């Protein structure tokens, strides 16, 4: 685990006891778990993994909203909404913070970062340079790497939703290295991911969301890692079931 130097601004997240029980997102497995069990976050990097529909992205989005970050992505100063699609969960979470405040914070939501880049250009005033240039003048993956390189800094609190969506293997390794550097400089990351590359980050905590709840797992036991290894070892065992 990370100890010396790693940031630790968010300690745990729980649920308001009067949260509704029916309908999306309140019937998601992770929300059912939160009714009686807080999710704990250690210093440094915490990854959330799980199958599609387990609620990991919904939880990260709701935490971002609960922390005052823009639901489509960005910082607390961003207030645009291309299409309000966030769930109601953010209004029911109880995010427990530790003493001390981060210097910087940001929510990277991979599927809507195009909208963030557009808003950065609209605001102008030198803001584009702070992001390493226009996100529309480079590839999607390059814009993610530029964001982490230029906009993210020491003692930051960063929530990322599936950042690997636009990254090559080389790009994922570049992001991993930047996360290592920023964690050593006092930052904390909470990341929803399917990437076995990002999960290899040394010292990271990995929380796996299943239908039965949330459990801490090792790198080797994390589903994205074990399933990827099984597929690469014997692709035909998976492909023979295709119609």
UniProtKB/TrEMBL annotation:
<keyword id="KW-0472">Membrane</keyword>
<feature type="domain" description="AAA+ ATPase">
    <location>
        <begin position="42"/>
        <end position="221"/>
    </location>
</feature>
<dbReference type="GO" id="GO:0005524">
    <property type="term" value="F:ATP binding"/>
</dbReference>
<protein>
    <submittedName>
        <fullName>Vitamin B12-transporter ATPase</fullName>
    </submittedName>
</protein>
<dbReference type="InterPro" id="IPR027417">
    <property type="entry name" value="P-loop_NTPase"/>
</dbReference>
<dbReference type="GO" id="GO:0006826">
    <property type="term" value="P:iron ion transport"/>
</dbReference>
<dbReference type="InterPro" id="IPR051535">
    <property type="entry name" value="Siderophore_ABC-ATPase"/>
</dbReference>
<dbReference type="GO" id="GO:0016887">
    <property type="term" value="F:ATP hydrolysis activity"/>
</dbReference>
<keyword id="KW-1003">Cell membrane</keyword>
<keyword id="KW-0408">Iron</keyword>
<keyword id="KW-0406">Ion transport</keyword>
<dbReference type="GO" id="GO:0005886">
    <property type="term" value="C:plasma membrane"/>
</dbReference>
<dbReference type="InterPro" id="IPR003959">
    <property type="entry name" value="ATPase_AAA_core"/>
</dbReference>
<dbReference type="Pfam" id="PF13476">
    <property type="entry name" value="AAA_23"/>
</dbReference>
<keyword id="KW-0410">Iron transport</keyword>
<dbReference type="Pfam" id="PF13304">
    <property type="entry name" value="AAA_21"/>
</dbReference>
<dbReference type="GO" id="GO:0006302">
    <property type="term" value="P:double-strand break repair"/>
</dbReference>
<keyword id="KW-0813">Transport</keyword>
<dbReference type="InterPro" id="IPR003593">
    <property type="entry name" value="AAA+_ATPase"/>
</dbReference>
<dbReference type="InterPro" id="IPR038729">
    <property type="entry name" value="Rad50/SbcC_AAA"/>
</dbReference>
